[in-house]
Amino acid sequence: MDPTSIWLRIHASLTRVPTARSERGASLVEYALLVSLIALVCFVAVSFIGTDTKAPLTSVGSSLLLGP
């Protein structure tokens, strides 16, 4: 056998990834990314829509506080 094939055999056995790995950490990271993306979308939506709805909501709020 040549030295390259010997080296490959030795290192292949040392670098094998276990097949029964837990995916709990990966799921947690995925959920955290989803929550942060949803929060970002909500923030952007409120910042754009908030400027258009400020006047109508202020008038409704003041009419509720003052009464008919």
How does this structure look, described?
- The chain has 68 residues and is mainly alpha-helical.
- It has a domain at 38-63.
- It has two helices and no strands.
- It is rod-shaped.
- The chain starts with a helix and ends with a helix.
- The mean pLDDT is 78.
Task: Please provide a brief summary of the model.
With 68 residues, this protein is an all-alpha fold. It has helices at residues 3-14, 24-66.
- State the end-to-end distance: 96 Å
* SSE pattern, N- to C-terminal: HH
Please report the total strand number as a whole number: 0
Number of helices: 2
SSE-based structural type: mainly alpha
Radius of gyration: 29 Å
Shape: rod-shaped
Percent of residues in beta strands: under 5%
The proportion of residues forming helix, as a percent range, comes to over 70%
List the topology elements:
Layout: H1 3-14, H2 24-66
Structure characteristics:
single chain; 68 residues; mainly alpha; 2 helices; 0% strand; rod-shaped
